[in-house]
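We emphasize that the prediction below concerns an isolated chain of 212 residues; any contacts that depend on oligomerization or on bound cofactors are therefore not represented. The input was used exactly as deposited, without trimming of termini.
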Amino acid sequence: MPKPTASSSEERRRRYHHGIPGAVPFPSGQPVSTLRGARVQVDPRRAGRVVVVLGLLSVVVVALFLLVAGVQKNARINAFRHEGVPVQVTVAGCRGLLGGSGSNPVGYSCWGSFTLSGRLYREGIPGDALLAPGSQLRMLTIAGHPGPLAAPGAVAAARPSATVYVLPAVLFGAVTVTAAALVLRRRAAQPALRVLPGLGGGRRLGEAAGGV
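Result of the prediction step, given as a token string:
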């Protein structure tokens, strides 16, 4: 049986593998991945600016959250001190609070009921101590907005404080300084404008050199 020669293999390939009219031959040395789509090129400087802007926005959100929390805390202290009315709270029940891995008790959350202006309210009792159901507690609530409870001793010791605004102010200041530094750095990185003899004012030196 005669062995197939190189010429017969080439003739068989031409016979059974006809080329498609108008088709562009595939370059053998080019990788296939380059034909599936354009390569994505990322500008490191632009990506860095995006990361910095997102970081600054995150800091602004945190600062706003802390600012609102501080304002509400001081407003609540003022409301209890100036509008607080005493009520008798009856403990309805408590449940344990777990921390860590979920197996260590860290305290208790209790709730109770009280009557004010003929209406019955059911609210949480501040603190994490275990209270006996049915026991009576003397608490304070806000006259205009009954609901939140506070212990008289805690209200007497609490004072509105400006320290709650320190951290938000520091965060806002850091964002402002960082943003200003980025703007100044970007302006400094831009080519300076120079007026050359015989050229119109305001043309960049690079543009003038390119037009020569």
